[in-house]
Model the fold of this input.
Amino acid sequence: MAQGTEPMRVVLPNGCVVIAQQLKGSPLISLHGFVTGGTLWEAPEKAGSVSLMAQTLRRGTEKRSAWEIDEFLESCGAELRFSASHEGVTMQMSCLPDDYTECVALLTEILRQPTFPEEEVEKQKVRVVNALRDALTRPEEVSYRRFLALAYPPHHPLHRAPDGTPESVEDLAREDLVAVYSKALHPARTILAVVGDMLPQQLLEPFTTLLSDWVTNSPADAEFPSVSLPEKSQRERVALPDKLQAWVVMGHKGVRRTDASFYAANVMATILGAGWGRLFTEIRDNRGLAYAVGASLQSGLMEGPFVIRMGVNPKDIDHAIETALTELERIRREPPTEDEVADAKNYLLGRLVLSMETTAGVASMLVTCELYGLGLDYPKRAKGFYDPITKERVREVAEALLHPERMAIAIAGP
Done:
């Protein structure tokens, strides 16, 4: 990665946070933006509306048609994408320095003046519905969606996949996208980070000019609900008769990224779920029960799940699940080894470094730092959060976080 200056942060009068960092020698300017809220703003019967709205945002504004937007981006070799997750709307942009000001003008125009043309909405609906129908033929996708429905109650944003279902998306109308747009975007919930070989002041200037007077009537805060564990384990199987392999997804709620136990919990999840971790070694290597095994802690603004995923032969489903539960019980009772803890820390810190090898990666990390209140110098201080974690602390967190008797277990396959 090229040499960089310290990031510069400004808060616009409307509450929008903009962060800029110069990375000398970088050929591209990269922007990463995030607006908190996501599927928090959609009604259950309108599942997928925030995601469809985000994907249709750049398909027309009060000043430009979808064709004109595409032509402009193509003419200068720039990219601009919007997407939505459970927790927010994401925007990503890359362009050459010479085109930066014009590209920011387009981005802000799209944020402030989208028109959601009827024909573009219908085109995007067809694409999304076809993608969903394809996804629902894959056991790994079906099992994960069913897992979310088991692990989180119907009123919780994580109960449903953010892209909805074929049926819910087909029922969406342009008016639904306009309505959810009016809730989903707000300057006070917006973080923008831009990185490239320009002075920070030059990177910030177009935003201070074009976004400072952006106002909306949407809620200024997004409050994500907490969730309780189920009283007992729940297990469901979805039949996909034409498949040869099954997928198992199992777990339950985890912790928020801002929770004090997050770092120890992340080490624990890595010891269990990394490619060299206990679950992979025991289930795949030692017992030959699965061709793919992994586990992760999906912490964010909400209590995202601790989740185990396994691709298995249908005849080995029960054995694989029991072996996974045994490994969870073991780490709750017995501390991991010093080497396991050290390997997990090195793995996590190594991934952090690798994630920042591009301007886009640096911009994304700056948004993460701001979103969770980590401080913009967090990458330099990250080691200090992991250093104090001992094997005893990992076991304590495992005992508190893992509940093998209260798991959501979803299976999809023949």
The radius of gyration is 22 Å.
